[in-house]
Amino acid sequence: MFRTSYSLGDGYGDIVHGQSSFFKQVFTHVLFAANMGSEKKNVYDFMVTANRPFSGNDVFSNLQRQGIGKSAVEKVLDQLVKENKIFMKLNGKQKIYCVVQPDSTAEDQKEIQSIDEELVKITEALREVERKYKQSEIEVKTLQSTCSIEEIKSKVSKTEKIILELKSHLKKMSKTGGNVVSLKDREKVKKEYETVTKEYRKRKRMCTDILDSILENCPKPKKALFEEIGIETDESVAMPAL
């Protein structure tokens, strides 16, 4: 009896491996298509149930708990728009999606589009009115801060009166050589000044003698003692020499 063994070799393994990769790719595409169909159904059901306009971010926020990613939501919305199940309108730079009503017709869609175009024109006109309104507010505030002709005349009259009074005072000073105080009053003020100065010097000398006596038995320096007692010298308050 003869026993013959055949070796399939590495080529058979490559074929099996290639078939495995092929089936894996097919399975992946089938699974992706199934998920895509499920995601489309979830998105469309949500739009029909809510039946009001949504942005892509709004749809994603409401469906992210179901495990649908943001990019998947955007793809599904674009696909539903192509299938005419929902329609998209631009609000500035933002896309707004809304489900197509079951009883809507092509004429209804044209009417909606016409209304949207009219709405855009009205919005632009409103912005222009708001701009002009703000400009008018600025002009009104500027006018309110400006004096009226009557107020200006009143201020001019008061200023002219002050000028006349100052001129009259200057004229009197010119006649007296700048001395508007009488000689008697000047002598009186001078005498009072000399009396006060003499008394100040006397009291200052007494205070200085007392402080010098304290400093003889005080370990603190003179400046520290003055600060502690609260004494201000002529120099510390920049008092002019008498």
Automatic annotation (TrEMBL):
UniProtKB keywords: Coiled coil, DNA recombination, Meiosis, Nucleus
Superkingdom: Eukaryota
Coiled coil among keywords: yes
InterPro entries: Hop2_WH_dom, LZ3wCH, WH-like_DNA-bd_sf
Subcellular localization(s) per the UniProt record: Nucleus
Pfam families: LZ3wCH, WHD_TBPIP
GO cellular component: condensed nuclear chromosome; DNA recombinase auxiliary factor complex
Location of the Leucine zipper with capping helix domain: 181-236
Record has Nucleus as a keyword: yes
Gene Ontology MF annotations: double-stranded DNA binding; recombinase activator activity
One GO BP: meiotic joint molecule formation
Every Homologous-pairing protein 2 winged helix domain range: 40-99
Residue ranges of coiled coil: 112-146
Family, similarity comment: Belongs to the HOP2 family.
Name of the molecule in the record: Homologous-pairing protein 2 homolog
Species the sequence originates in: Aphis glycines
